[in-house]
Amino acid sequence: MTVQLILVSNGEPVGSLSADTDPEGLTRVVYEVDNNGRGARLAETLRLDAGLPVRWEIDGTSLMGGTVHERFAIDPDGAARWSSQADEGTTTAEGFYLPADASPCGLVLLVERALATGRPVPLLPAGEVAVVPVPLGEVGGRDVEAFALTGVQLRPQYVLRDRVTGELVGISDGELLLHPDLVAAAAEIDAALQRVTRSRFAELSREATLHQSGSLVVRDVRIFDPVSGRVGDPQTIVVDGRRITGIGPDIAVPADATIIDGAGRTAIPGLHDMHAHLDTSSALLYIAAGVTNVRDMGNDNDALAALMGAIEAGDVTGPSTVPAGFIEGRSAHAMRMGHVVESLDEALAAVDWYADRGFHAIKIYNSFTPDWVAATAARAHERGMRVQGHVPAFMDADRAIADGYDEITHLNQLALGWVLEPEEDTRTPLRLTALTRVADLDLDSERVQRTIASMVERGVSLDVTLVILEQLMLSRARTVIAAHEPVIEHFPAGVRRYRRRTYVPYRDQAELDSYETAFRRLQEIVVRLHQKGVKLWPGTDDGTGVTVHRELELFVDAGISPVDTLRSATIESAQHLHRADDRGTIEVGKAADFILVDGDPTRSIRDIRNVALTVAEGRAVSPARIYRGFGMVPFAAEPAVTTG
Questions:
Q1: Whether 536 contacts 526, CB under 8 Å
Q2: pTM above 0.90, yes or no
Q3: Which of 6, 41, 111, 277 is most enclosed, with most CB atoms within 10 A?
Q4: DSSP reduced 3-state for 464
């Protein structure tokens, strides 16, 4: 039996999965991805017995080129043994082995096992996956049934089959693998899956909502004011509709109000993630983490519009979103997202397309032609939009700023201009691996100081994303790094395994050590920029929500005060997005957009993880219920709720 699927991104093929099973039951899988100059390349060999793996060998490279050499086998004595990037171990328990690095082919086998047994499937080394059929209907000329998997990852995962023939026709695991006959219908299928996902998460949104209409009273909270930097005495906050209508120590409670006991917790304006790529699952996870506002930095434009509409209508819980329009240049390394352009005229048309739809900015990406930047930036400014993004290949930050950038996206995109030669190509993983050179960078050099001076003079800010750089540069096989220590045991089994790995290729321990040194130097750059008055925006490029907390911790660990860090994540981000009249502080007349936290993050920024309640657009939501809906362990207990 042979299976052939095509990986589709933004309507274009970017990879493939082929699986061949011989008459002896041995399956060989080849999985190759090439999108944005990166992607896994894996060869797998596996054998099943009664629907469970008894042998699984995986070799190749992972997302950023890290080496994969994973082995699983059932010994003659019945013991299961495995060795992977994440861990090694042995057990006599029965279950379906969950690889640390593999193609999505295993999802198909998990569905088959669940359907055969009629119950959730135990996983090895740990965890459990449940499979639920969900309606999809007629798509691409086929009657397709979908099976949703829960318990492995945080993002939705689906296996698609032809309802009539039973043939496998697709897998959705963040991106879409499709039967060759259905590639032309990718947009239709993706939209159908998005609708299914929104319906599933609308139910979780309802279950997690403590209050949605009528008056809301939150008693006994100490309000953090990011303007003064102080935490006040106990107060009561009254909300009607989506707005705060009263704040005071002794305030009348409206009849029939929903009353939440703050129990002395700290009330903080809703947090911002200034580098998001929003989807339905991350929308709920952001709310659970107290992130009520995000700036989307590139997406499937139709999917994002539909999701934002569902959030605004109250059907799905999620953050208030300000979108930036993604523009990439056509190349073999191009990221297939937003508008991929082949000429300056197409770039200018893309700017107009985004401006006509109310996007606040454009985001330029790696393969964009440098000579088009000045004209494209000028058009964006004419249309009232900001200009931000990666620094395109064969260009440095100095030229990007001179040509009209208002903001640099990612700290590495700024720093690479100080360590690369003009001919080196950042459309490849070099944009990460070259950061080892930062370890030896002289921060007092004329080149570095010239760039910083230019940023200060022109008011250019930085979307930092320290947290994603930390994960990519410092993650190590079979190790829980500092970023993950407080959170990893809260995650489902698949996420826990995925976080224990080495992302970057390396030759020896000395090269690994250079990543450590370079990351500390990057933190030094952050502090220097802050001291010079360059605005720094906390962003994650990750959809788990909790990484926002780590981003803030990294600001503080670098040497920025907790108050300044919280100020950046609240009022200053709101000001940057031209929304400070409605959010960023907890005040009468503003949107009810705040969180309750156990502890005081102005004293210990790590307390920011302990979000007990999120109020977004006047809707009070229990983070604990959202986390349990994702198979996660909550970080704080739900506050007491009564009706007056």
A1: yes
A2: yes
A3: 111
A4: coil
